[in-house]
Amino acid sequence: MLDQVSKGRRPASSVSIFSGKIQCGDCRDWYGPKLWHSKSEKYRRTVLQCNSKFKNKCQTSHFTEEEIEKAFMHTVSQLVFNREQIKEDFEEIKRIAYDTTDLEIERDKLYVELESISKRMEDTISENARVALDQEEYNRHFNEMTDRFNSVKEKYDQLTAWIEDKKSRLLGAEQFVKTLLSEGEIKEFSPMLWHSLLDHAVVARDGKITFVFKNGMEL
Ligand SMILES: [Zn+2]
């Protein structure tokens, strides 16, 4: 979970809406647009393939944008078919799955501890300036406090990232349900649909594309 947060996504290498959204099942890098036969007007076309295809010798296939759009819309039609159920399910799990209360309590405790360590460090520094302390002892004690501070700070940062991640996932899932319900008929592909419904897609070696939607559903 925390790994996922810190790993992040490749910045989009071009303006393609498909950049950074389709993951290679072989090497986990992202798909990006590549221009094929760029010198020939007749055969020139853009395909999407793993950005590390040749570096990692990936066996996952390439797709045209149209193929991705078609596969995506086919899957979306299944979502639309079940949208009332999806909405109900989301309402039911929302409070549990995206709840950050306990994490925030834990984070606040760490914050208090950070403040307390920081205060003790300051006190120790000013004591050392006033009184002739054993410097070896002083340094040892100070280093201990620094280590403690750093280790608590690391946990604090991880929790903060986790909380932010959960919150943004909740926003994404809410947007997902809203989009799914707002349209009467969803038939045409649009970048808006692509962005508001899809978290990312994964391409398997056999060419199968699994779409991971923003409510956590995988189809
Ligand atoms: Zn790959």
Describe this structure in words.
It is a single chain. The chain has a three-stranded mixed β-sheet with strand order 1-5-6. Strands 2-3-4 form a three-stranded antiparallel β-sheet. α3 (83-97) runs antiparallel to α5 and α4 (101-130) runs antiparallel to α5 (135-182). The chain has one domain. By secondary structure, the chain is an alpha+beta fold. The two termini are 21 Å apart. It is 56% helix and 13% strand. A hairpin with a 5-residue loop joins β5 (198-203) and β6 (209-213). The protein binds zinc ion (ZN). Zinc ion binds next to loops.
Describe, in short, the structure shown.
This protein has 219 residues and is α+β, with helices and mostly antiparallel strands. Helices cover 56% and strands 13% of the residues.
Which helices and strands occur, and which strands form pairs?
Blueprint: H1 2-7, E1 22-24, E2 31-36, E3 45-50, E4 63-64, H2 65-81, H3 83-97, H4 101-130, H5 135-182, H6 191-197, E5 198-203, E6 209-213
Parallel strand pairs: 1-5
Antiparallel strand pairs: 2-3, 3-4, 5-6
The chain binds zinc ion.
Defining key terms:
219 residues; alpha+beta; 3-stranded mixed beta sheet; 3-stranded antiparallel beta sheet; 6 helices; disordered N terminus; binds zinc ion
